[in-house]
Amino acid sequence: MLLRNLKIWDGIENHYSDQFDALRITDQGLLVLTTSDDIQGGEATQDLAGAYAIPGLIDAHIHLCLDPREPDPFAHGKLPESEQLKAMAERAYKMVRAGITSARDLGGGQWLELKIRDAIKSGDIQGPRLVCAGQPITSVEGHCHFWGGEANDEASALTVLDRQVKKGVDLIKVMATGGNITPGSRPVDAQFDETIIRAIVRAANSQGFSVAAHCHGVDGIRNAAHAGVTTIEHCSWVGPEGWGKHYEPELARTIGEKGIWVSPTVNAGWGRHLGNERYLAAINARYQAMKAEGCRLIASTDAGIPNVFHEDLPKALAVFKAVAALSNLETLKSATSECARAVGLEAVTGRLADGLSADILMFDQSPLDNLEVLENPSWIFANGQQITGQ
Ligand SMILES: [Zn+2]
């Protein structure tokens, strides 16, 4: 199939392509960039009349098993498996209908998201391409311990890791600090020391897995950064004085130098802070400082936690831009090419380039000029399959 008369953003450059204006989707669902006059015999064509095409969006942090309408994070674990799978498939479908064509699932207790991943991959259901972490490694009674990944020392942490690998996960998640949604767990507290996280990273990397580390408190950020994790989730700089109050330039430099991605889980709900000028100035300054130290940012929402809906990444990106003081280009890259690199999908998606998966969103207006258009894609292709459009 040939999609003609497009303005193509490749996921990298600050402009639309001056070389190509058409995308061919091969029978394998892969992309070929070409020109509108390159119609091959017998090929289906679609004239998009100057629509703007960009790569499908990627959310670097979701939990498919969590129901955002449910205040109790463990409520889902009490439902029968079939009911959970049905709800998860519905969430996955909503995501891909919103233009989220890939996502990284950072934790559940029963590996059900791996079943959804495989059902999407085999074409049984429609949803984003998923990479999944399974049970996060956490301390005894630590953050999200109800998912079953508790460990009290290095050996038991590696036992939890081995269990995830046997179940077929794509990466490893470690809770380096406490978190909000677990009673008795405090975001400021580090859960593991650097030695244990280092052992987790070594064991994961040696088997080809990346490591995502949940980090609110600055001690946990330090342990995770020094241990060389792949992505730091949240990165909330929580200290004794509270959220965002304990930014350390030296530590941000280490994160930048090590090439660790920061995944700040800015969801659409953060929009409520944007009218608070003092808050906005402080958080803008912190993100600017992190960027100046070389920290690379990726888009993520933590979808599934209360009131954070799985399909809302397109809405969250304009808020992420405002919170982190990003340009439209930086924001779009954080949800496409940069995000694909961070979650290990750069050889598959994140750009509109020859040989990558045909994950394509099309718009009547230019997303490079206005991020709000992301909420209204006119056409969506995911993995070469048309999801919406005429
Ligand atoms: Zn999370």
3D structure, described in words:
Helix content is 29%, strand content 20%. It is an alpha/beta fold and 390 residues long. It has 2 domains: 2-55 and 351-388, Roll (Urease, subunit C, domain 1), CATH 2.30.40.10; 57-342, Metal-dependent hydrolases (TIM Barrel, Alpha-Beta Barrel). α3 packs parallel to α4 (194-206) and α4 (194-206) packs across α5. The mean pLDDT is 96. It binds zinc ion. Zinc ion binds next to loops.
Percentage of residues in DSSP E strands? 15-25%
Q: Unreliable stretches, pLDDT < 50, 5 or more residues? A: none
CATH superfamily of the largest domain: Metal-dependent hydrolases
Query: What would CATH call the architecture of the largest domain?
Result: Alpha-Beta Barrel
CATH top-level class of the largest domain: Alpha Beta
CATH topology value of the largest domain = TIM Barrel
Instruction: Bin the helical content.
Output: 25-40%
Class by SSE composition: alpha/beta
What is the alpha-carbon Rg in Å? 20 Å
Strand segment count: 15
Order of helices and strands, N to C?
A: EEEEEHEHEHEHEHEHEHEHHHEEE
Instruction: Give the overall form.
Output: globular
Order of the strands making up the biggest sheet: 3-2-1-4-13-14-15
The number of domains is 2
Instruction: Describe the main β-sheet briefly.
Output: 7 strands, mixed
| Helix count from the secondary structure assignment | 10
Oligomeric grouping of the chains: single chain
Mean residue pLDDT: 96
Ligands bound, unique: zinc ion
Descriptors for this entry?
20% strand, 15 strands, TIM Barrel, alpha/beta, 5-stranded parallel β-sheet, 7-stranded mixed β-sheet, 29% helix, 2 domains, globular, Urease, subunit C, domain 1, binds zinc ion, 390 residues
